[in-house]
Structure formats: structure tokens, C-alpha cells
Amino acid sequence: MLGSIIALLVYLFIITYLGYLGYRHTKTSADYLVGGRQIHPMIMALSYGSTFISTSAIVGFGGAAGTLGMGLLWLTFLNIFVGIFVAFVIFGKRTRKMGHNLDAHTFPELLGNRFNSKFMQGFVGMIIFLFMPIYAAAVLKGGSDFIQTHFGISYEVSLLFFAAVVAVYVWMGGLKGVMYTDAFQGVIMFVGMVFLLVFAYSKLGGVTEAHSQLGALFEKPEVQLQTEKLVKGGFNGWISMPVWGSPIWWSLVTTIVMGVGIGVLAQPQLVVRFMTVKSNRELNRAVLSGGIFILMMTGVAFIVGALSNVLFFNESGKIAIVAAGGNDKIIPAFIKQFVPSWYGIIFFLALIAAAMSTLSSQFHAMGTAIGRDVYEKALNQKGNSIFITKTGILVAILISVLLAYMANKLDASMQIIATGTALFFGLCAASFLPAYIATLYIRNISAKAVLSGIITGFVVGIIWIFFVHEKEASSLQLCQLLFGKPSIVKDTVLTKLAMVDPIIIALPASVIATLIGALVSKNKVSEEHLNTCFKGI
Amino acid sequence: MLGINDPWILLAYMLCILSTLACVGYGICNWNKGAENEPDEFSEEAKWEKGESKVEEIL
């Protein structure tokens, strides 16, 4: 305990010092530009990775892999191919250029300025402000679960401690986006995960041997007894995909893999990162290290999460989720039980680092959404915007902490962190992805077409989350309250729809609405404005 | 192969590594491409940075 506290204090001192160094060197915008151009590509690249990956990815999705198995590696593949390659090469370059052409500093502002629509900017800002706390809560829960298990203190105390550390960091303000700080956090995360991978594989006798043991584990009679409920849902072992069309298959493929894998493209806090990049060259370079970094983060978390079953079983005769006492506790319990204690401290710092870099970008997105996008632009208010933004961030932190507190009351066997994250990612994809593509690639599309896509994706997504998709609707309780059942389609001919993730329905609905809108409405944006938008693209 | 019998899991495992290698290859091939040195690009970026520092100040 004492060792961890000392390590945390040293770590906080280092990031404060690095933040101060970065701040001192970047006082003017010209300095910032020069500094940015001279900065080592490795520093630049590490800073990307640390904002991408959070405790949600490592603890939440790592735990999901502990329960559902290596099928989650499909998400790692999408994280690398879609989240890095497609996002940087296809979307990043245009976003950067158009953001600069339009002097846009937030994702809602990019859409609003592109189509001269303050309503669009305000509406998108409002969605971000209202729903991003769900994702922030998932990140907070990931860190708190680890602290709870590692130090043996209550979840509530862990959450308050973790939220306080993060709040102080966010409060320091100037540290945001300072590359040295992000890069330092990236190094800690990278080293931590490399060790974890080598440790897990070597402990089980190498790559092939470890996988073989995991495959054989499912065949053991005592394990089959423990996985009985999962098998009924379609579970097929940790190194096999679930049964095609089963509830677990739908959950794994549509919610976890597609929801997050595709949803990453329309994440407001990540889109903003493209605009802060100095040139396309940096994006090209970031593809290299971003790919490696994501593989070592989510890839390792999912492999180790699945392999933890063998170690837990050898030690206690129980599979991971049973031994740890809940899906989200698997990775923390694994670290506490099997890994040397000195490494526990490094992993603790890596998680704090992962949470800090992600949460600060989330609070940045929520604060600007309410202050700049809704209050200043959509409501056309002047003055007091600093007060509104700061109050907005404070409210967002409080709501996130409250949600993280409430999330712990849910059924521990659920993948709470992964589901919460996927919910937000899916909602973002459904509401923003067609609009984002149209903004960057379809020159003559009208604002009405884009807006109808945003509204349709959002409304269909919300209805699906609250009333149809049983996993979420049953936790949210509104459907039970109004219709007396966990999903409106339950026990009807459409009952299978209760397994289908919102993204599968809401994203196509949004695409169709955008296309219909494009056919029936005319572009009213002037040619001159379009030339400004697409200058140099 | 690699102790994994399900071809879908094996495919995902391999694709993770291959897509990372593709990212590395793309990064190396385009390492020095895309730099912007034109004066108007520079001033445009300086203008944007001024706006950005205002946003940061508010936050």
C-alpha cells in the first residue's frame, strides 16, 4: 500500500513537471507550431495512444475476454484497422484540413461551420454532453474496480479516491494535450502491457502451449459445470467463437466488436485530435506507432483476460469470472493474485495514466460541447461562457461519478464497463458517422439531409436502447415500468430483435435518412463557402 | 496452428498482427510525406492555434 502511494506521488510529480516544461515551451502559438514540428515522432505517437486507450479497454474489455474468450480479438483487429488506419488515413487528413479551413475547434463546430447551422452544432453538442458521462463512468469504474481489488478497500472509497485524483489532474488544465505528459503516460502503459503479455505466455509455457491449455480447459467436467449458464447462451469455449446467432454471439459481434470497432470513427474527443495535428506527415507517422500501441494495449488485455482462466483454474479450481467475483474484477484479481507485487504498482500507474489521458479528453469534449457549442453558438449567448464551461465540466464529472457508483449495483456477471462503453460508441456511430462522412466527402449535400440523418440515428438508437435491446433496456428499467417487460419485443414474433445491438438498426436508419434527405432537399450552402471548406482538400 | 483450432479465432489473431504490420509498413513508406511548409499553410495554422489556445484558456 505504502509503496503504491509513494509511486503515485512520484508519478504525479513527474507529470506535473513535464506539464510545466511543455507549458513553458509553448507560450505563444508560433512557439507551439515550431515545437510541434520539431518534436520527436515517437513522443507524438505515444501521446496518441494514451488518449485512445482507457481503463475501460483494459479492465472492462479485458474482463469481457476473460468471460467470452478470444473472439474479442476481432475488436482488436477493428481497433487497429478502423480505429487507426481508416481513421487516420481516410478521415484524419480531411478532418485536419477542413477543421483549419473553418476554424473549428470541436466536433460539433466542424459540422456546424461546414453547413452554416447553429442548430446542428447545438444538437450534436447536447448529445455529447448528455451521453458522454456514460463512457466517462465506464472509465472511472475500470479504475475503481482495480483499486478496490488491489488495495482491498470498498468500491465507494476507491471511486472517490480515483475521481479526486483525476479531477485534480483535469483541474490543472494547462496539462491537457501537452505531448510530453501524454507520451510519458503512453510509455508507462506500453511497458506495463508488454510485461503482462510476456508474463502470461511464459507462465503457461509459451504461446501454443498456453492456447492449447485454454482450449483443453473448456473440456474439463468441473469447468463445464461452471460454464453451464454461459453455454446455454451460446458460449463455446475461450478459443472458439460463440454459437452463430446465439445471445452471446449477438452480444460479442454486434455490441462489443461492431459497436466499439466502428463507433470509434465518430468519437468526438478523438476527431478533435486530428485537428491538433501539425501536418499529414504526423498522421502518417502516427499510423505506424498507433498500430503497434493498440495491438499491445487491447490485444494484450484480451489475450491475457482469456488466458487468466487457466491460471485461476490451476490455482483455485474456478474459472476467471467465478474466482474474481464478477466480469469487471477479472483483470484486477489476476494482477493481484498472479503477478509480482512490484508490477501491481506499475500496472496501477498504467491504469491511472490510461484513465487520466482519456478522461481529460472526455471532459474537454463535454465542457466545450456545453459552453462553446450549445451556449455560445446554438443559444447565441455572449459572456459567462467560462462560467458555463467550467460548471458544465463540474456537472459532467459529478454525473459520471454518480453513474459509476450506480453501475456497481448492477449484476456483476454482466460486462458493465464494456457495455457502457459500447453503448456510447454505438450511439455516436449511429448519430454522427453518416454526417461525418458527408461533411468530409459529399460536397453538395444539404444541411437538412445531414441533420435528418443525425436526428434519425439518435432517436432510433435511443428507442432501441431504452425499449428493445434487452441487455440495456432491462438495466434502465423504463420499458419494465411502462410495458411490464424488459424489452418491448420480448415474447413476440420479433423476440430475437431483443439481442440485436442498436448500432445494427440505428446506423442504417441514419444512412437511409441522410440519403432520402439528400434526394428531397437542395444544398443551400454557397459555392464560396464550399470552396473555403474544401480548400486544399 | 498456435494451439487455436477455431479458424475464426485464428483469423482474428493473425489479422491483428497483419494489420499492425500494415500500419508499420504504411508509416515507413510515408514517413516523410505530407509535411506542410508553405507560408500560407503556416499562417493558417497559426490562426487556428490562436483560437485553440482561447478554447484552452476557457477550459
Structure description:
The complex is a heterodimer of chains A (about 525) and B (about 60). Chain A is an all-alpha fold and about 525 residues long. Chain A has one domain: Sodium/glucose cotransporter, CATH 1.20.1730. In chain A, about 80% of the residues lie in helices and about 0% in strands. The termini of chain A are far apart. Chain B is an all-alpha fold and about 60 residues long. Helix content of chain B is about 75%, strand content about 0%. Chain B is built from two helices and no strands. At the A-B interface, helix 2, helix 5, helix 10, helix 15 and helix 18 of A face helix 1 and helix 2 of B.
Shape of chain B: elongated
Task: Tally the structural domains of chain A.
Answer: 1
Termini separation of chain A comes to 54 Å
The assigned CATH architecture of chain A is: Up-down Bundle
Keywords:
heterodimer, A: 537 residues, mainly alpha, Sodium/glucose cotransporter, 78% helix, B: 59 residues, 73% helix
How would you summarize what this structure contains?
Chain A is mostly helical. Chain A has a single domain (2-28, 46-446, 522-533), classed as Sodium/glucose cotransporter (Up-down Bundle).
List the helices and strands and how they pair.
The complex is a heterodimer of chains A (537) and B (59).
Chain A: H1 2-25, H2 29-38, H3 41-52, H4 55-68, H5 73-101, H6 107-114, H7 118-151, H8 155-171, H9 179-203, H10 207-217, H11 221-226, H12 228-232, H13 247-263, H14 268-275, H15 280-316, H16 320-324, H17 330-338, H18 341-378, H19 385-407, H20 416-441, H21 447-468, H22 470-476, H23 478-483, H24 502-520, H25 527-533
Chain B: H1 7-29, H2 39-58
